[in-house]
Design brief:
- With 432 residues, the protein is α+β, with helices and mostly antiparallel strands.
- It folds into two domains: 338 residues, TIM Barrel, CATH 3.20.20; 72 residues.
- 22% of the residues lie in helices and 23% in strands.
- Strands 1, 2, 5, 13, 14, 15, 16, 17, 18, 19 and 20 form an eleven-stranded mixed beta sheet that branches.
- β18 and β19 form a beta hairpin.
- The longest helix has 12 residues.
- The protein starts with a helix and ends in an 8-residue tail after the last strand.
Length: 432
């Protein structure tokens, strides 16, 4: 099966129209990147949500799943919308039913940056690696020649929702230097980059001997353009900035990424292994930029304590398109565990200065703005807060608060935490 057939199969799995995917495929050979207009990020999420009838569907934008055991762990957690984001290569595993062992070692027909130049596929890795395989260690030679194995996922629930995604890495600044540790996902995009070979481990030496870049190898701006051109639905999905805390991302880079295109949706806030980038989130929001927060497992699907992030999408119907639109509009909230111990049943902002939130059981609930926690109830199922003029002379309550978001903490000992998306009350600095 070639890449065109694979992506058309993926489109059928997500319910995308053939025309949408055909347009995406125009960029597979790297000849062009289609520009699509996009409106600003939704500064007032949940405004069009009917909480009485909406469905809450669990998903996540960044999870590595390469075995049936991984998938079983994800499904056990109740995730219904799968956007698996593997790398090496950074290519969509969608639909999962078509993935086989060594799939992309045998079916690589998307472009790769080779010695600094983007080269169109396909790539015959058996032929390429065969030029030097005899010089590699015996344990590595044992994997050669590459052969396609059996299907990886033999047990998939009927009707599971899937969309293409991948984790992209190894980008460049305009001056040609590396953007170290910047990783981005593209939920809803068919874009693929890099190779199967982890060059930093010098396993099959495709990088050191052949100059094949194991990641994007392009300017981050160009890579984002390619991710966006590959979106199956023009009004759904986008790009996420991964684990800023772990990556130690420079703050001005995060702002540059968000300002580049409104479909760069936001940053990861909670991940597996107790990684928390919440302070990055509040810092960005305090600048007046809308920045959605994402909650992910990354590599931690097997954590026995269940402590990793989950996105809870609030949608009018159970469909891939609705889920991807929810990501684009910010109509979802984050859960630290997502095990059903606590959920929001309503989040509403009204009049530009008031927030209300409700939970399905008593919880500690906080309202957070750029000033910090401005209201807290220790055990309740609802909270309401209206902005007041800050307690200093001449202060602007809009500027002082900048944004409003709500947090809820389970008080049953489970450790569950919930995070609403932010409602922006300061003017957008990009428009300024």
């Amino acid at each position: 099966m070639n890449r065109r057939e694979f992506l058309l199969s993926a489109a059928a799995a997500v319910g995308g129209g053939r025309a949408d995917v055909t347009e995406c495929l125009k960029t597979v050979d790297g000849s062009s990147v289609a520009a699509r207009p996009a409106g600003p990020r939704n500064r007032h999420p949940y405004s069009d949500v009917d909480w009485a009838t909406a469905l809450q569907i669990k998903g996540t934008t960044h999870v590595h799943c390469t075995t049936q055991a991984h998938l079983d762990a994800i499904l056990k957690r109740g995730l219904e919308f799968l956007t698996i984001s593997n790398y090496y290569p950074s290519a969509p595993w969608c639909p999962l039913s078509k993935m086989t062992k060594n799939y992309y070692r045998l079916h690589h027909d998307f472009p790769v940056v080779v010695n600094g130049k983007r080269v169109a596929g396909p790539f015959d890795w058996n032929k390429i690696v065969g030029e030097w395989i005899g010089e590699l260690p015996e344990e590595i030679r044992a994997e050669y020649p590459f052969k396609e194995g059996e299907k990886i996922f033999k047990s998939l629930p009927e009707g599971i929702l899937e969309a293409p995604n991948a984790e992209h890495h190894h980008f460049l600044y305009r001056d040609g230097s590396n953007v170290w540790c910047l990783h981005m996902n593209a939920p809803g995009s068919t874009f693929a980059s890099g190779t199967f070979d982890q060059s930093q481990k010098v396993k099959f030496q495709t990088g050191v001997r052949g100059g094949y870049n194991y990641g994007s190898g392009e300017f981050w701006q160009t890579a984002i353009d390619r991710m966006l051109a590959g979106l199956v639905f023009p009004d759904g999905g986008g790009v996420t900035i991964n684990h800023p805390h772990w990556s130690a991302l420079r703050r001005h880079l995060i702002l540059d990424l968000l300002d580049y295109d409104p479909r760069v949706l936001g940053i990861e806030v909670i991940e597996g292994a107790h990684t928390n980038s919440e302070y990055y989130w509040d810092w960005v929001l305090a600048t007046g930029r809308q920045c959605f927060g994402f909650f992910v497992p990354d590599h931690s699907v097997n954590r026995k304590d269940g402590d990793f992030g989950v996105n809870v999408l609030v949608v009018p119907e159970r469909s891939v398109h609705a889920c991807l639109k929810a990501y684009r509009q910010g109509n979802f909230y984050g859960a630290r565990r997502g095990l059903g111990e606590l959920k929001f049943t309503r989040i509403a902002f009204s009049g530009g200065d008031t927030v209300e939130a409700e939970t399905d059981r008593p919880a500690k609930i906080e309202v957070v703005t750029a000033r910090g926690v401005v209201k807290c109830v220790k055990s309740a199922t609802s909270i309401k807060w209206t902005m007041e003029k800050p307690p200093f002379c001449g202060g602007s309550r809009r500027h002082a608060n900048a944004f409003i978001r709500v947090k809820a903490y389970a008080i049953d000992g489970s450790g569950e935490e919930l995070f609403s998306q932010p409602y922006m009350i300061e003017d957008d600095p990009v428009k300024k």
